[in-house]
Every structure is written in structure tokens, then in C-alpha cells.
Amino acid sequence: MRKLWKRLRFIVKIRRFIPFFIEFFRSREVPMFKKTLSIVLLAIYMVFPFDIIPDWLGLFGIIDDVTVLLFILQQIVKMAPSHSKDKYGI
């Protein structure tokens, strides 16, 4: 239940994370491997043609896509330096 609440908060505050993600990719403290891994995960998500739940099932298909995207974004947050997380209140 706690994890679900964190994900819902993440969805609501996603607009605040844009400057955080820009700083993440520009930061010299974040190793290039982590930046590359983040981009690869996002690219695989965009290119991969199959879904766990097909989009034609309406709301359930969209929830599936949002869940996968949020998982990838949470991994990026976990890889970020702690001072960046503190700066943006993450």
C-alpha cells in the first residue's frame, strides 16, 4: 500500500520532476553508464511493440503503460545523487 501511495504522489507531481531530470542528465556526478541505462530503458519502452495488457482494453491498457513508465522514472530517481533529490524535494 505504501508503494502505491508513493507512485500516486509521483504521478501528481510529475511536472516538478522535469527540472530534476534535466539536472540528472547534465550532472557530472552521475556516471555515464547510469545516464545511458536510463535512455536505453526509455527507448526500449517506446520501441517495444508488445504490452502486458493491450491498449485496446481501454483504461487497463493505459494503466499498464503508465505503470511501466513510472517504474522507469523511479529508477532514474534512485540513481540520482542525494543532493539533487534534496534540492527538488524528491
Molecular structure report:
This protein has 90 residues and is mainly α. The chain has one domain. It contains five helices and no strands. Helix 3 packs antiparallel against helix 4 (59-79). The protein is globular, with a radius of gyration of 14 Å. It starts with a helix and ends with a helix. It is a multi-pass membrane protein. It comes from Parageobacillus galactosidasius. This is DUF1232 domain-containing protein.
Distance separating the two termini: 19 Å
The helix content is over 70%
Query: Which stretches of 5+ consecutive residues score pLDDT under 50?
Result: none
Please provide the ordered H/E string of secondary-structure elements: HHHHH
The tally of strands reads: 0
> What is the mean predicted local confidence, pLDDT?
80
Q: How much of the sequence is in beta strands?
A: under 5%
Count of discrete structural domains: 1
Q: DSSP helix count?
A: 5
Question: What is the SS-derived class?
Answer: mainly alpha
Globally, the shape reads globular
Main beta sheet, described?
none
